[in-house]
Design brief:
Elements lengths: L6 E7 L3 H9 L7 E6 L6 H7 L3 E4 L5 H11 L4 E4 L11 H11 L3 E9 L7 H18 L11 E4 L15 H11 L5 E8 L10 H18 L20 H6 L4
Parallel strand pairs: 1-2, 1-4, 2-3, 5-7
Antiparallel strand pairs: 4-6, 5-6
Helix pairs in contact: 1-2, 5-7
Length: 253
Amino acid sequence: MYRGKRISVVIPCHNEEEGIAVVLEQMPSVVDEVVVVDNCSTDRTPAVASERGARVVRETRKGYGYAHKAGYAAARGDVIVTMDGDGTYPPDSIPLLLYVMAEEKVDFITARRWYSRNGETKSPIRLLGNAVLSGAMMLLYFRFIVDSQSGMWMFKKEILGDLDLTSNGMALSEEIKIEAFTHPGIRALEMPIYYGERIGESKLNIWRDGFYNLFFLLKKRLLLRRRRPRLRVAAPVRAPEVPVEERRAGGMS
């Protein structure tokens, strides 16, 4: 719990038995619950997660977006944090993100992968792909987000109903950022974090997922509807006018 708010961490997993063990062992005490979404794993991912105290939710429809949505529905916390089960996103960043969320009074934070703790850099093709997709998002939505493909973000659960999440695949990562950063009633920001080395085999198909995400950005822009602000400010209430005669009778000048 953090400042009276329950914290849930949602981790979608497909065959991450090695990585999820490491991630759960590093989870900070401020986290109240970890929801691991088993998305059609064929290894011991669900058993490993359960043995280490996580609540396992099964989503039989294969897809990154499906897994996230199942985790959001199962989460009981006031604030939801997402990360992958492969060790690339450090759980010890969670307290810092919570501090910034509370101090800056924001509703949504996305974590930008800034620098590797072990000094390694990502492959040139991955860096190029992320740059292309993030650049396309900036051009289409006029929002400056450096790492649009980051898999770690944090949001207040109360805004979930204001996010129109249509993707059931990898594009949910960029879609939830589009929804949060373009919604007039949601305060959102991006902040840098360190990232770690991946544990286990990558499930990402760089070319297929990259082109799909680019196509989704274009489609989303065409279909993006106008939304009303989530929060409405009531008009100020004016005190009733008192007739001059009554003010004089009451001794008011």
